[in-house]
Each structure stands twice: as structure tokens, then as C-alpha cells.
Design a protein that fits this description.
This protein is about 35% helix and about 5% strand. With about 450 residues, it is mainly alpha-helical. It has a five-stranded parallel β-sheet, with no helix packed on it. A two-stranded antiparallel ribbon has the order 1-2. It has a two-stranded antiparallel sheet with strand order 8-9. GO terms for molecular function: tropomyosin binding. InterPro entries: LRR_dom_sf, TMOD.
């Protein structure tokens, strides 16, 4: 049970019926002045002189002269004598009682004793003779980051040697920032690029309008209208160019009709979250866009509804491989990342199958006769109608030497050849330097070596 608050021995409820104005009328002027000093009214309309307890009854002596006031204070400080010392100062002599720190508690001393580890004579000797730099390097290798500063840690990792003047108690000073040159301004001519896109220039595959200021909406409309019929442009970069929802909608319409763009970058613009949704939705119609970036727009937070809608659209897109958007909710981030990874894996499998099928369909071409005089040997490539020559038909009346595609043939070379062995399309051709060319034409053909 709490006791009620009291004032002058009475409960506060007894003062509810008292008239305050009647009490103030009974007070004298001196009593009112004393009461005003005790009470500090919280009223901003009152001047500070009436709200504070300080009351100076002296008349002002004149305007303030700051310079004379400082000179007067300094003069008083110099003229005031110092307090006499009870014991004069003597160098090396302690005056008064010296402070001695209290002994450590028993628990701390026991903990310090438990930390002591016996490493053995070999390790004790190695650590005892190690220098400070070696100890710091060892601490960096073992991951004792609290035993060193950043400069020592990075110097140990990069094996650059410890900084001079930095020990265990060294203070790391801030390093001077590196001065990098400013990027040159974008000198791309928007009118010229619009004309080239409209003319479907086959040499224009990358359009970069990044950081170009004061591009009118009319130019954006002309560019996006030309994108509908362009079949060579692959990369479109429109970063920090002032795109809004109206121009973004025109870009979305152009993306639905374009079939060659692979990368679309519209970061750092003024596109609202619904405009971003329209751009992502337009990627479902075209299957060529593999990378889309639209982060850092006017609205930093898309919201749960917009993020879930973008996630659903991304999961329906089988060709998108990279997405540059800041998603706040972990569910959306996880679903988008999983789907993009599946698209990347599927794309890798398709590329592998395509390469294998092309390798099987293309005929295996005959290796060229490297280092062999073509005037002496007439190598004829095999065709679909001509059967693969056998070893009996290798030597003819005109001394024509042919080679089987599936097998390697040992061909002795003439004396002017430099190499003893050649590797041509997986077939190893041995060349014997000592045998003359006439012996090849007069003798029986050499036996073919199996693969």
C-alpha cells in the first residue's frame, strides 16, 4: 500500500478547495518577490530577466569593452601571489603519499596462472629467440587479430615487412587516400546514335548513354521506337540519364518487340516501383535479355507487394541470368537467386549439348602438311563419295601420298625438315630425318599405326 503525498503535513486533496488568487492577494510585495525567486515559470513569452532568479540591482557602468576586460583579468592573475607550498619542489623527490594500485583479486590471478601453457623445449626456444616482426607474423597466421593493428595484419598477409615504428603498442595512423583521376565525360552523340540505331547499323552493338545530362524525352522516344526494328544492338546502358515512368513505359513496349538485346541497364533514374514492374514484365515477351539492372531509383524501398510481383515475374522468365535490383525481403531474394541459378545451369547444359552436336555434324578436315613440300605430295581431302584410301593405294605412279582420317601414318621426312614429330588434329606423324624421299617412292608403304 502506497502512502499518499503530503505537503506541510497535509494531504494534497485538502488544498483543492483553496482559492490561489485569494492567497496571493493577502501577500505583501516583499513576500511576492521572495515567491517569484523560488518559482521558475516555464513561459517562453516572458523575458529571461523575469524567468531567472538572478537579480542585479547595480546600474550598468557603460558598454562592454572586451579588450580591457581581458587585460584586467590577465593583470589580476599576474598580481595575485601563488599559494605558498608546504613542501618545496625537489627534482626526484616524491611529495606526499605515493599511490599504489591495489592487488589483483584471487580469481584473476588464478586465471592468469591457468593460461600458462607448456609448449615444450623446442617451441619455447624458437619463440624465445624470435624477433618482434616474426611474432607479429605468427599472430597474423594464427588469426589473433586483437594482438595487432590493421597495418601489421595486412603487412603480414602480403609479406611486405612490418611498418617501421609500429610495435605491439604502436598506433596506426590513417593512410593518405589514393587520388584517382576523374572519369572522362561521356562524349557519345545521342543524335548520331539514334540515327545509327534507326538505320540498323551492324557495327553498333553497344549503346552507352551513361551520365549524359539534359536528354529530352523526344530523343528517348526516337531511340526506343528505333529499337523495335533494330536487329544488331545487344547492350543498352542508360544509367543516370533521367528516365521517368513515361519513357520507361515506351522502353518496355520496345523490349517486347526487340529480339537481340542481351543487356539492359537503367540504374540511377527516376522510375517508380510500378515502372520497374512493367520493365520486368516486358522481359517475358522477349527471350534474348540475359541481364537486367534497375537499382537505385527514386524510391529506394520497393515494398513487399512490388517485390513479390517482381519475384513472380522473374520465376516465369526462363532466359534471365542476372538481375540488378535491391530486394529488402529475404524470401524474395532467395527465390530470385534460386531461379537465376537454375537458368544459368540450364544455359550451360544447352551450350554443352550444342557444342557436342556441332562437333559431331561437322566433317573432320584433313590436317595440312606442315613442313612438307606440297609440290612433292598431293594430299587430297576425303569426300563423301570417295572411300577412305587403304595402305595399298598410298603409293601411285605419280607418287601421290594420301592419309587416312581415322589413322595416323608414319611418313619419313626429307633432310630439310626441322621437327622429328608433328601433331596434326590429334594424329601423330613421325618423320625420320635420315631416310631420303626416293626410298619412300621405291619401297613398300609403311604400316599405319593404330590410334
Amino acid at each position: 500500500m502506497t502512502t499518499p503525498a503530503k505537503l506541510y503535513g497535509r494531504e494534497l486533496s485538502t488544498y483543492d478547495d483553496i482559492d490561489v488568487d485569494e492567497l496571493l492577494a493577502k501577500l505583501s510585495q516583499e513576500e511576492l518577490t521572495m515567491l517569484a525567486k523560488e518559482v521558475d515559470p516555464d513561459d517562453n513569452f516572458l523575458p529571461p530577466s523575469q524567468r531567472t532568479n538572478y537579480a542585479c540591482e547595480k546600474d550598468p557602468t557603460g558598454p562592454l569593452n572586451r579588450k580591457k576586460l581581458i587585460e584586467h583579468i590577465n593583470k589580476q592573475a599576474l598580481e595575485t601571489p601563488d599559494r605558498p607550498e608546504v613542501k618545496p619542489y625537489v627534482a626526484g623527490v616524491i611529495r606526499g603519499k605515493k599511490w599504489i594500485p591495489p592487488p589483483a583479486p584471487e580469481k584473476m590471478r588464478e586465471a592468469e596462472e591457468q593460461i600458462t601453457i607448456d609448449l615444450g623445449d623446442e617451441y619455447e626456444q624458437a619463440l624465445g629467440t624470435a624477433s618482434q616482426e616474426e611474432i607479429i607474423d605468427l599472430a597474423a597466421i594464427l588469426g589473433f587479430h586483437s594482438m595487432m593493428n590493421q597495418d601489421q595484419y595486412h603487412a603480414s598477409l602480403l609479406n611486405k615487412g612490418q611498418p617501421v615504428g609500429l610495435g605491439w603498442d604502436g598506433i596506426t595512423k590513417a593512410t593518405k587516400p589514393k587520388v584517382y583521376p576523374m572519369d572522362p565525360p561521356n562524349d557519345t552523340d545521342p543524335d548520331e546514335t539514334i540515327k545509327r540505331v534507326h538505320e540498323n547499323d551492324q557495327n553498333l552493338t553497344d549503346l552507352n548513354w551513361n551520365n549524359i545530362k539534359n536528354i529530352s524525352d523526344e530523343k528517348f522516344e526516337k531511340l526506343f521506337e528505333a529499337l523495335k526494328t533494330n536487329t544488331h544492338l545487344e547492350v543498352l546502358s542508360l544509367v543516370n540519364v533521367g528516365l521517368n515512368d513515361r519513357t520507361a513505359q515506351i522502353l518496355a513496349d520496345a523490349l517486347q518487340e526487340n529480339s537481340t538485346l542481351r543487356v539492359v541497364n537503367v540504374e540511377t533514374n527516376f522510375i517508380s516501383p510500378p515502372g520497374v514492374v512493367q520493365l520486368v514484365k516486358a522481359l517475358l515477351t522477349t527471350t534474348s535479355v540475359e541481364e537486367f539492372r534497375a537499382s537505385n531509383q527514386r524510391s529506394q524501398v520497393l515494398g513487399n507487394k512490388i517485390e513479390m510481383e517482381i519475384t513472380k515475374l522473374v520465376e516465369e522468365n526462363p532466359s534471365l541470368l542476372r538481375l540488378g535490383l535491391h530486394l529488402e525481403y529475404s524470401d524474395a531474394r532467395h527465390r530470385v537467386a534460386s531461379h537465376l541459378q537454375r537458368n544459368i545451369d540450364r544455359n550451360c547444359r544447352v551450350h554443352k549439348r550444342t557444342n557436342v552436336s556441332l562437333r559431331l555434324r561437322l566433317p573432320r578436315a584433313r590436317p595440312s602438311a606442315v613442313g612438307i613440300n606440297t609440290s612433292l605430295f598431293n594430299l587430297t581431302p576425303p569426300s563423301a563419295e570417295t572411300p577412305t584410301p587403304t595402305t595399298e593405294a598410298m603409293v601411285t605412279e605419280n607418287s601421290v601420298v594420301t592419309e587416312s582420317v581415322e589413322k595416323s601414318i608414319v611418313i619419313p621426312a626429307s633432310e630439310n625438315l626441322d621437327a622429328d614429330a608433328r601433331i596434326l588434329n590429334g594424329s601423330v606423324i613421325s618423320m625420320e630425318r635420315q631416310t631420303p624421299l626416293e626410298s619412300i617412292l621405291n619401297s613398300t608403304p609403311a604400316a599405319s599405326e593404330p590410334e
